[in-house]
Specification:
TIM Barrel, 10 strands, alpha/beta, 9 helices, two-stranded antiparallel sheet
Length: about 270
């Protein structure tokens, strides 16, 4: 098990809402400065257009810094996932996280089964795991009905209990539904707050350990240390008053999350 950072830990600092968005190379550098040895390039669509030479250069930077890379995208279509397998080969990535739906394609359960049946042999040959993430667009029980028929170490779950709350799935139930097939963990905390005038609620992120994520239950059910499952830090940080404060808060949350997880495992 390794603690890692995701591009989502740099969401605002890499966005066009700041004057100088961070590049992937800068995110890797910051990851190394925090003595973190794993980085997941997740939903970073620009990388799909990179040349092989650019990808090899990124891998060299990661290797020089002692960082292992993982990938993340959306969708199940064969051509798209084969492109990511090519990227994974050049980056020496062994995990590709994806989701059922992309912006242009929302498969039925039957279509998802067929797409996975077609692409899984490619993942198995390359020894890369395809990890489908829990999220509100697909009920976790429906997702597992697609995954469970495939008895393959190359197919599993990227578990993020927070994502399913919007579909009224309790995090503990999502954990129970998926724990046996989890291969990757996204770690972020979340909380509800009352809106102005007590009219409704807002569901947003909060510092790890201060919200509704039952981290101890998650770890007890999934057993990431025993099973070699990496924990990838993300955030749902709302935009703050300005870019400077937002970037500062994002860096603080990231550092806090790293220290929280390190403290947890130092106690064992």
């Amino acid at each position: 098990m390794t603690i890692g950072l995701s591009t989502y830990a740099f969401f605002w600092r890499a966005s066009t809402r700041v004057a100088q968005p961070m590049t992937l190379a800068q995110m890797l550098q910051k990851t190394a400065e925090m003595s973190v040895s794993l980085f997941q390039i997740c939903d970073y669509a620009q990388i799909e257009q990179w040349s092989d030479d650019e990808l090899r250069a990124l891998r060299r930077q990661a290797e020089k810094s002692g960082i292992t890379l993982e990938l993340g995208t959306r969708g199940l279509t064969g051509a798209h996932l084969r492109r990511y397998l090519h990227i994974a080969r050049l980056l020496d990535a062994r995990i590709i996280r994806s989701m059922f739906n992309s912006a242009s394609h929302q498969p039925t359960q039957a279509e998802a089964v067929q797409l996975l049946a077609d692409i899984l042999p490619d993942f198995e040959r390359q020894q890369v795991a395809l990890c489908l993430e829990t999220y509100e667009q697909v009920n976790s029980a429906d997702m597992m009905a697609v995954i469970n028929p495939f008895d393959s170490p190359a197919l599993g779950v990227c578990l993020d209990p927070a994502n399913c709350v919007a579909a009224l799935e309790l995090p503990a139930q999502v954990i129970d539904n998926t724990a046996a097939r989890v291969l990757n963990l996204h770690i972020k905390d979340f909380a509800f707050t009352r809106r102005d005038g007590w009219v409704g609620f807002t569901l947003t992120g909060c510092p790890l350990g201060e919200g509704l994520l039952d981290y101890d239950l998650l770890i007890d059910k999934v057993r990431p240390a025993e099973r070699g499952i990496n924990q990838i830090i993300e955030h749902w940080l709302p935009w703050q008053e300005n870019a400077e404060l937002t970037c500062q808060r994002e860096a603080q949350w990231t550092q806090h999350s790293v220290e929280f997880l390190r403290h947890k495992y130092a106690q064992e």
